[in-house]
Amino acid sequence: MDAIILQILNGLDKGSAYALIALGLTLIFGTLGVVNFAHGALFVIGAFCAVTLNRIFSISFETIDPTKVDFLGNPATIKTTYLEHWFGAGPAAWMTDWSVPLAILLAIPVMLLVGVIMERGLIKHFYKRPHADQILVTFGLAIVLQEIIKFFYGANPIQTAPPDVFIGTMDLGVWLGFEANAIAYPYWRMVYFLFSTVIIGGVFAFLQFTTFGMVVRAGMADRETVGLLGIDIDKRFTITFAIAATVAGLAGVMYTPITPPTYDIGVELLVLSFVVVVVGGMGSLPGAVLAGFLLGIVESFASMNEVKNILPGIDQIIVYLMAIIVILVRPRGLMGRKGVMED
């Protein structure tokens, strides 16, 4: 039982990333009708917002300390970060330690701006074009964005630590009545799951309880009628795209301590997220979230040694096998709407 609970927990943090990216993909497709293959790159941009802020906090300058000398007898030079110079040692250490959560404050305006530029500069010209054209142009954009990130940050993974208070594991087994250390789970993975839950809940609350969200949901059902009512649907499409980009970016920010980001991590997550969207049902926001967590848990169980010893390599293909089974049994996905992608 403890092994089952641990695998479910492992699946939840994977599923959180899948669900957040798939949520943005479905939001864009449902409102704009655009298949956005650049969405994975938005996740990467968010991740490198965290890396960038961490590097900014580490920028330092040298000063000479006449009270100390180096091994040659010369006055010693001391490196001091600008953060420490401006705010003091205590606040600077706290801000550096909490650089990943603080990167959310940087990522939100950056991702909103990136989303607006992408939608106004490129995506809007492909609303009425075939999906094949949309896939080609957005995939090309994703490659361009990846290469830009590679140019500035290199190709190697970049370690970004969580706050010290979240380093280590929590003993969930004791809370659930098991023996000590039976279910040890990393603190930050639990934080990521809770953060994802808050973001997903916030998106659904925004769509359900605000006037703007009502217009977006109406546009997902019938864009032409919404436009005929005199509503500036283009403006709302731009905002929707920016919100979807921000969701993907925030997912990337908080994921950096779990998997050190590289310039090409978005491609792998994008493919898996499109599988999630298809399994959940094209255009279905609840379906995207449900499928994200479901496939994350299934993938986690498939990665167990007991399973891989019986079926070697099953962890690499289980998500795609699940997609095949779902599509064969229910072609529209778990919660897909009639008529979506059927023309």
Automatic annotation (TrEMBL):
Coiled coil: none annotated. The chain crosses the membrane at residues 16-35, 42-61, 102-123, 135-153, 191-216, 236-257, 269-298, 310-329. It comes from the Bacteria. This is Branched-chain amino acid transport system permease protein. Keywords: Amino-acid transport, Cell membrane, Membrane, Transmembrane, Transmembrane helix, Transport. GO terms for cellular component: plasma membrane. PANTHER family: ABC TRANSPORTER ATP-BINDING PROTEIN (PTHR11795:SF442), BRANCHED-CHAIN AMINO ACID TRANSPORT SYSTEM PERMEASE PROTEIN LIVH (PTHR11795). Belongs to the binding-protein-dependent transport system permease family. LivHM subfamily. GO terms for molecular function: transmembrane transporter activity. It is found in: Cell membrane. GO terms for biological process: amino acid transport. It is a multi-pass membrane protein. Pfam families: BPD_transp_2.
